[in-house]
Write a structure and sequence with these properties.
By secondary structure, the protein is mainly alpha-helical. Helices cover 49% and strands 12% of the residues. The chain has one domain: Arc Repressor Mutant, subunit A.
Length: 118
């Protein structure tokens, strides 16, 4: 696959070896960030920031994506003018086997229990 990321606009990400469990759990402890991760997991593809319907200001949305990126939960790359987001499933599953699937399943069960839309 050819990398079509926009040169010169690279965002900092932790290397796989630098991803810490406590940072991942912190990132996923926020309902907005967990919702973003649930959407990315369901899509199994890159999604642009504008795809997500988060009921907060743009600056707060940017903060949520930065926390997810800096914790190692997602990878963000610019493709043209769009900032694309992908779940770092391989890294997370390699470091913490079963954690992501367990958290996503628990979030799904909670959503059903509480009658949330997703």
């Amino acid at each position: 696959m050819t990398d079509t990321a926009t040169p010169g606009r690279a965002l900092p990400h932790p290397d796989r070896a630098e991803i810490r469990l406590e940072a991942v759990l912190h990132a996923l402890s926020d309902p907005m960030r967990l919702g973003i991760v649930r959407e990315l997991a369901a899509a199994e593809a890159e999604l642009s920031c504008s795809h997500f319907d988060v009921p907060v200001t743009k600056s707060t949305t940017t903060h949520h994506f930065r926390v997810l990126r800096e914790s190692g939960v997602i990878r963000q790359v610019y493709r043209g003018t769009a900032k694309m987001n992908a779940l770092r499933r391989d890294d997370l599953d390699g470091l913490f086997p079963g954690l992501l699937d367990s958290l996503l399943a628990a979030a799904d069960r909670q959503s059903v229990r509480l009658g949330d839309a997703g």
